[in-house]
């Protein structure tokens, strides 16, 4: 019994010493970590301070380089003659206009407006169409200079080209081409309809179709068969709007009957 008690006491004593040693080692490890943390923070702070000083030095060098370049540019600009500066700016403007024209022509290629660059500027081709039928094409040869001017063209004389150019050529080349195309397409459409009327319905017409060069006034006589009798009617179509293919005023007459007249609002 005494031996057992002695072993039991020795075992408890040994277990207590080992546990105490483990606790001491843990405390020492924590103490070392706490001592290392301030040293690590100081090292990081020192490295950041060095980097900040280097960046400030680089900033000062860049600022000095910028000031030096600005001074050189200012000196070189002052040494150029005013006429030469003006000439360069005009060349830049003309070059920009040429680039704008090229971009416009590329955008309008699928709308019937195309063109190619020439030694003087650009030659624009306006192709007309009506209800899926390709009709005539017209060209305008533009000289890219200040001011813009028309060198050659194939626009019919009754199209108000000079009036359109005076309004839009110098201020908005895109609008100039759009308006001119609108006039030409409307003229070609009216002419196409008049030609088809004369060719496809010749059997119904009593006499030739009368029209002016712009096809803004059409007059003809046609026969209507009713119960074996033929009744002649006269028709007159007036196009007041030169950019449309529909008449703005239509009048129909028959001998002994007051003329029947319809305005555009009634026709649409």
TrEMBL record:
Q: Where is it found, in Gene Ontology cellular component terms?
A: kinetochore; nucleus
Task: State the compartments where it is located.
Answer: Chromosome, Centromere; Nucleus
Matches recorded under InterPro entries: CENP-O
Q: Which domain of life is it from?
A: Eukaryota
A Pfam family reported for this protein in Swiss-Prot or TrEMBL: CENP-O
Q: Which UniProt keywords apply?
A: Centromere, Chromosome, Nucleus
Q: Which family does it belong to?
A: Belongs to the CENP-O/MCM21 family.
Protein name, per record: Centromere protein O
What is the protein's species of origin? Sus scrofa
Which lineage do the record's taxonomy fields give for this organism?
A: Eukaryota, Metazoa, Chordata, Craniata, Vertebrata
């Amino acid at each position: 019994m005494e031996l057992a008690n002695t072993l039991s006491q020795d075992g408890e004593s040994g277990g207590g010493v080992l546990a105490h040693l483990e606790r001491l080692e843990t405390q020492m490890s924590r103490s070392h970590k706490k001592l290392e943390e301030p040293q690590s923070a100081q090292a990081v702070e020192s490295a950041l301070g060095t980097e900040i000083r280097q960046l400030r030095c680089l900033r000062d060098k860049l600022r000095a380089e910028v000031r030096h370049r600005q001074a050189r540019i200012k000196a070189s600009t002052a040494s150029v003659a005013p006429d030469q500066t003006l000439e360069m700016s005009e060349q830049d403007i003309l070059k920009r206009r040429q680039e704008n024209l090229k971009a416009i022509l590329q955008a309008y290629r699928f709308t019937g407006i195309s063109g190619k660059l020439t030694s003087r500027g650009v030659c624009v081709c306006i192709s007309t169409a009506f209800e899926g039928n390709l009709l005539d094409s017209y060209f305008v040869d533009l000289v890219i200079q200040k001011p813009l001017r028309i060198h050659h063209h194939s626009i019919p004389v009754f199209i108000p080209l000079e009036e359109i150019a005076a309004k839009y050529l110098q201020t908005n080349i895109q609008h100039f081409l759009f308006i001119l195309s609108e006039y030409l397409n409307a003229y070609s459409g009216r002419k196409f309809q008049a030609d088809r009327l004369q060719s496809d319905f010749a059997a119904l017409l009593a006499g030739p179709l009368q029209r002016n060069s712009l096809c803004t006034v059409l007059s003809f006589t046609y026969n209507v068969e009713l119960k074996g009798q033929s009744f002649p009617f006269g028709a007159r179509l007036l196009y007041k709007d030169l950019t449309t293919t529909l008449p703005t005023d239509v009048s129909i007459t028959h001998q002994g009957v007051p003329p029947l007249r319809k305005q555009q609002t009634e026709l649409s």
